Amino acid sequence: MKKTWGGCGSKIKWLISWPLLLLLFLTVPNCAKPRWEKFFMLSFILSTLWIAVFSYVMVWMHSLHRSSSPLCVFAGDYNRLHTGIPDVIMGITFLAAGTSVPDCIASLIVARQGLGDMAVSNTIGSNVFDILVGLGVPWFMQTVCISYGSEVMINSRGLVYSVVLLLGSVALTVLGIHLNKWRLDFKLGVYVLILYAIFLCFSILIEFNVFTFVNLPMCMEP
Asked: Which residues, if any, are the signal sequence (predicted)?
């Protein structure tokens, strides 16, 4: 019975993912094959572009749920009342998880190869890239190329607390690696997962004004 369910699950997974796999097969050279080894940079660039496209689609799908009610102008960019999830929480949970899957897979691959330094460096470097380039480039394009002299407003004052939590998480992660004698093992994995859970809990509680008032109340649709 389990074998049958596993077979059905694999077929369903294949049916759902085959259009995407076909698209990537036709557009991204497979460097694992000898004839495409010289085109590794092209594969890297195309893969990066596809990640950008998929990330844009995720954000666009999320924006479909944002409220268009005029009564919500002073409440910031929140989702519709039927979800009740602020944009910041969507960003640090669903969007962050979706866009970080490639980083997770890359770290997993190099960790299995015994390259622990590369796995840790990848996570740190990707976060630095996300903060400095992932924010700098779109803000530059918006304020210089698209609407010169405009400003990008940040509605949530809770982001200040989230940044503090982020820095604290990084410090505790480095401390945990140091105390574990710079070894990546099961204990360290559980430790960082607990840190991530704590970070999410505190960030969500802050955004919902549990500890202090950082956001205006959710608005009601007329």
From this structure: none
